Prior knowledge:
binds guanosine-5'-triphosphate; Rossmann fold; 6-stranded mixed β-sheet
Amino acid sequence: MSAGPAALVALGWDADRDAEFAPYADRGLAVGRVSRVDRSLCEIVTADGTVRAAHGTGGLPCTGDWAVLTADGTAVEALLTRRTAVTRSSASARSEGQVLAANVDLVLVVVGLDVEPDLGRIERLLTVAWDSGAQPAVVLTKADTVDDADDVRADVETSAPGADVLVVSAVDGVGLDVLAALASGRTVALIGTSGAGKSTLAAALTGADLETGAVRQDGKGRHTTTWRELVPLPGGGVLVDTPGLRGVGLYDVEDGLDLAFADIEEYAADCRFADCTHVAEPGCAVLDAVETGALPERRLESYRKLRREAEWIASRTDQRLRAERARQWKVIHKEMRRNPSPKK
Length: 344
Ligand SMILES: Nc1nc2c(ncn2[C@@H]2O[C@H](COP(=O)(O)OP(=O)(O)OP(=O)(O)O)[C@@H](O)[C@H]2O)c(=O)[nH]1
Ligand SMILES: [Mg+2]
Ligand SMILES: [Zn+2]
């Protein structure tokens, strides 16, 4: 007798999932959480253990998805609704989003204090984090390598309105209790550049021995985490480690920008013109805030840069959709020429 999906509560299963799954349960199908995705197979943690299954036809599974298995258990029959998704524009020329982690509750933007923090990069990652629909937080790690961690934190806080900024160290354990409490019972994704300390933090939080830069000896550089993995947290919840993101392209992040730059949006509400671009308009409350020092000019520039990039990607996506539509119409017209009065 199967344990049933109720056994998956520690992995994030809840009443709404149960309701959505009911029709599949009636058909005797099993469900589980995708813990890892390879080119053609994915690993799914079910109540009866971990299985490997083909991707199936119900959309490409991603780490964190809830996947319903086919009756024979060899493929994914369907994915339950993705509540949140950490997405970036894919590396390929096709303007599509690549989902890094699905159904995440908390996105931790991990930043190593051993290098000078790049506020623009943190703002970019926070934009992606906010856009996922999950709650973001910034984790400044490797606190053991500096003695001005709290000054850095104060700096970063002005770049992270609405998000907690924590200072931790995996080496001496500083701040790990606070972070563990924040993460407990939730699905937590770690994002950040390579070498930031994500896998080390994941290991410290889960007790699992994940691959980190320190153990890698084959000289292939610092890009150590090559797949995303779902690891249970001791007190319930799961953690998703992601590979270092060299460049995080923004994908359809309008909402993320509004949230990551909520302070600017707030000033903008007082601009004289509703369509103010905050460049040179009279009565611009955003420029006034820069003038008085309330808003760092760097931050306004970062906002403009990310917005331009987001708009460019959106236009590229539209172009692709338009081209796709034009191609479809060509096919339809060809059909019509070949068969001028299609039979009903
Ligand atoms: N001093 C110190 N070093 C740390 C800490 N956390 C991580 N490191 C070191 O930083 C390096 C990179 O850590 P990783 O955890 O592999 O970084 P990552 O973000 O997972 O990197 P990718 O998997 O390449 O994206 C390793 O040499 C770690 O030992 C810390 O809290 N303090
Ligand atoms: Mg790693
Ligand atoms: Zn303005």
